[in-house]
Structures are given as structure tokens and as C-alpha cells.
Amino acid sequence: MDIPLIKDVLNSSNVGREITLRGFANSVRSGKNNIFIILRDPSGLLQCVSHSGESAFREASEITRESSIEVKGILKEDARAIGGYELAIDAVKIFGIAEPYPMKKGHKKVFLFDNRHLWMRSPKVTAVMKVRSTVFESIHEFFNGNGFYEIQSPSFVGGSVEGGSTLFELDYFDKKAYLSQSWQLYAEAMVNSLWKIYTVAPSFRAEKSKTWRHLTEFWHAEAEIAFATNQDIIALEENMIKHVVKNVLSRNQDELELLKRDQTVLKNTVQKPFLRMGYESIIDLANKNGLNLAYDSDLGADEERVITSKLDVPVFATDFPKKLKPFYHKPNPSDSDHVLCNDLLAPEGYGEIIGGGQRVDDKETLLNRLREDGLNPNDYRWYVDIRRYGAIPHSGFGLGIDRLVMWICKLPHIMYAVPFPRTPRRIYP
Ligand code: 4AD
Ligand code: MG
Fold first, then answer.
1. Does pLDDT of 66 surpass 80?
2. Which residues have their alpha-adjacent CB atom under 5 A from ion ligand 2?
3. How many CA atoms lie within 13 Å of 42's alpha carbon, on the beta-carbon side?
4. Domain 113-417, CATH 3.30.930.10 — does that match?
5. What is the position in ligand 1's atom list of the atom closest to the CA of 328?
6. What is the phi-psi region of residue 53: left when phi exceeds 0, alpha when psi lies from -120 to 50, beta otherwise?
7. Phi then psi for 84, rounded to 5 degrees?
8. What is the spatial distance between Cα 39 and Cα 4, in angstroms, rounded to a whole number?
9. Per-residue pLDDT reduced to its tens digit, 237-246
10. What's the CA gap between 98 and 68, in Å, rounded?
11. Which string of b and e fits 341-362 if b means at least 16 CB within 10 Å?
12. Ligand 1, closest atom to CA 183?
């Protein structure tokens, strides 16, 4: 069943015609002689009016804010109303009367997220979710258009990919199991038969760092490619981000405007080449902007905020010191203290949205790297096997989709980018 939407019926050819719309009462204003109801549906808002003495007036006067309704009436042009049109109500059907609605302007963040199930309905949250939808759609579009197979990995796993400190542990019958931090290790097995693969799935991290960019459950778009180098994967990441941002700019103008998003940097992201800087140059840039980092400092939310706040395109930070990255990163053959990796940092202070690079493809190096990271090679037997039977060079990356949405919409916290965010402090609603 197709319900007509406000944006589809608001045009001059419908003026004088009777139309029927469904939605929620975004606001209700009653006077002695008339009632103004702003109707809201997924596409927008429309002012509807009922005058006393008309047949629908009694029913219309029962409508409260956020009641769900169907209205039938004649469309009129009205320059004073939002969108330039008004509906003169002839008939009203009420699906559900709303009790006094708790959401008001000026609520604090905690109250808003405690009521996320209601706050969802607001035009701003709806706009973010529409952009989010375009982002997911565009990621699938990009990979499907570039010859990738979509394939899945398990969410229950036996070991860590990204370090033990953020593992969610659970009882798995008589064994310990964990929630997956990344599909990567499984991808490295699957890439040998399919060569170009991707997935879009939730990843889980028991994050102790409570920052504006960390969730405990986040959506992860990951890709792995046979025979690809770090440079190849960097080029692919840039094309993917350009594709996604270009689609948002062309499909979500209304939403970006409603969110008052300045679009200069988004346009640059589509049009200009991304920057590429080695780790040491990134540290120099941080220190030029007032930090005091050593050449082996890890970069967190605060450091990346400083590094990227003045940039107007994304930057690839490459070739980190080995000790800052997990075991699977391939050491640079000409400088074994550094690994062939890249983090893509979003501009405007947002920082890392992608982590990727070239994988260790040799058994002995992998065994040494596992031991150096304090891991037991016996727990990674199957992963080591991949290097035992016809190892190939390969590379991949993981994009934090929620972080990308946060940056595209220029939101102050990652929680705003997610329908029902999960953080150390929040599992309700
Ligand atoms: O840099 P990370 O940890 O890399 C990996 O997981 C690789 N195994 C991916 C791969 O090569 N297949 O995570 C990748 C991205 C980060 O750049 C970030 O955008 C996002 O995932 N991310 C998070 N997003 C929200 N909340 C968290 N706690 C996140 N942790 C990582
Ligand atoms: Mg990372």
C-alpha cells in the first residue's frame, strides 16, 4: 500500500483538489474560531486548518500534539504557511490520541536520549537518519559497482583482532567467547577464494575510553582484497568516501540544509585529492598546532581533533610505528619498525573514520608479531594456516559508518548519528 506523502502532493497542480494525508500532529494551535495543525510525515510538514462551524471542527479539536491522524481536505496556496500551502480540513480520522507529550525545546542530552524512542520523530533526527540511509545505500552501491562479493563473518569469536582490552567476553556454554571487534581475520581466509570482498555489519568494543566518538556497538563496513598493497587500498578508500559524500550532496540537500551543515568541506571531499602524510609529518603538524607529542605517541580523539581541525579535506595518516598497531599489520620491508598502514582522518576536527593497511603474509613474521603482542599463537592456528598454504599479499580496511555519518552531518557526538546508540552508560531504550 502506498500512502501519499506531503512532498509529493505539494504542487500547484493539486491546488483546489481534495487530498488525503496521514501523519502525526507536529503541533496544534487552537483559537476560538479555528484550529491549526501542523501535519508531519516522513517527507515534511503541512499546515492544516479547521474553522468552527465546519463539519470536521469537533473531531479536529480532539487532536493533541503527536496524535496520529488522517486528514482529508482541499489544498490551497498560502504564502504564510510552511512550504507555501495549507490544507482546509474536510474530514479527520484519528488513529491514536497522544497523551501530553514530554518532548520540549531545550531538554538536556540525557533526557533526549532517555526518550530516543520519541525524539526519533523530530525533523532533525529524521534528517540525520535519512543521510544515514544514503550512506549505507552508497557503500553497498560502491562495492557492488566495483566487483566485490558481499560476505559475512561470525559475531561470536574465540579471540581478539584489535587488542584484548576492548573485548566483550561472554559465556559460550563451557567456553569463553567474545563479540567480534572486526571481521578481518575471517576476511583474510575468505579473500583467498573470492579476491574482492566486503561486509557491512555491527562490531563490538568494550570501550573504556568514553569519548564523543566511541560506541560499544558500531556499524562497520570492511573490505579485503587479494594482491592489493597499502597504496591500492588507500586509493580504494578515497574513491569510496568520494562516492558516499557525492551521493549525500545530491540526494540529501534538504536534510543538509535543515541541519544547517556548511557544505564547503563536503564539496572539497568530492572534488579535491585527499592529503597523504606519513606518521612523523602528522606528529609535526600536531606539534605545530600546540601539542607536544613524541614520535611514538598514539593518536586519540583529542590529538586528532587538533590535527584535523583546520583541514578542509580528509587526510591519510600512513606508516605508523609498529608498536602502535595490532599484530596483523605488515612491517615495511625497508623499515621494519614501521608498518604499511593507513588511518583516514576526517577534517573539521573529526579524526579517524577508517583504519586499514597491508597484512602480514609470511608465517614466521606473523608468529613473531603475535608473540610480541602477548597473544598465544595456538589460539590463532587457523589464521596462521592461511600463511602456510599459499600465502598471498593482501590488504583491507574498516570504515566506522557511524563516525562517517557524524562527520557528514557535523554532529557534536557519535550518539546523534545512531538510531539507538550503545555506550558504556547507555543500553536503554
Ligand atoms: O581502526 P580499527 O580498530 O580497525 C579494525 O578494526 C580493522 N580490523 C579493520 C580492517 O582492516 N578490516 O577500526 C576501524 C574503524 C575505525 O577507524 C573507526 O572509524 C571505527 O572502525 N571504530 C569505531 N566506531 C565507533 N565506536 C568505536 N568504539 C569504534 N572503534 C572503531
Ligand atoms: Mg584504528
1. yes
2. 355
3. 6
4. yes
5. 8
6. left
7. 85, 10
8. 13
9. 999 999 999 9
10. 8
11. bbbbbbbbbbbbbbbbbbbbbe
12. 12
Q: Which residues lie with the beta carbon below 6 Å from any ligand 1 atom?
A: 161-162, 181-182, 184, 205, 207, 214-215, 218, 220, 222, 352-356, 396-398, 400, 402-403
Q: Which residues contact 141 (CB under 8 A, 6 or more apart)?
A: 243, 247
Distance 80 CA to ligand 1 centre (A): 48
pLDDT at 426 over 90: yes
Asked if residues 198 and 223 have their Cβ atoms less than 8 Å apart, the reply is yes
Listed residue (357, 324, 344, 315) closest to 403, CA to CA? 344
C-alpha 296/C-alpha 322 separation (Å) is 9
Class of domain 6-96: mainly beta
- Joined grid coordinates for residue 189: 581466509
C-alpha cell at 368: 613473531
Q: Is 197 helix (H, G, I), strand (E, B) or coil?
A: strand
Q: How many CB atoms lie within 10 A of CB 402?
A: 25
d(CA 87, CA 77): 9
Atom number, ligand 1, closest to the C-alpha of residue 216? 28
Q: Where in the chain is the domain with CATH 2.40.50.140?
A: 6-96
> What are the residue ranges of CATH 3.30.930.10 in the chain?
113-417
Element of type H or E holding 60? helix 57-60
Q: How far is CA 407 from CA 50, 216, 225, 320, in A?
A: 43, 19, 27, 24
Distance 278 CA to ligand 2 centre (A): 15
Residue 208: the pLDDT is 82
Identify whether the C-beta of residue 155 lies closer than 8 Å to the C-beta of residue 177. no
How many whole angstroms from 173 Cα to the centroid of ligand 1?
29
Measured torsion, CA atoms of residues 319, 320, 323, 324, in degrees rounded to the nearest 10? -140
Amino acid sitting at position 184:
Q
Band the pLDDT of 32: cuts 50, 70, 90. confident
- Report the alpha-carbon distance of residue 256 to residue 16 in Å, rounded: 32
Q: How confident is the model at residue 31 (pLDDT cuts 50, 70, 90)?
A: confident
In angstroms, the CA 237 to CA 244 distance is 11
Rg (CA), the chain: 26
Q: How far is residue 137 from each of residues 144, 220, 248, 332, measured CA to CA in Å?
A: 11, 14, 10, 35
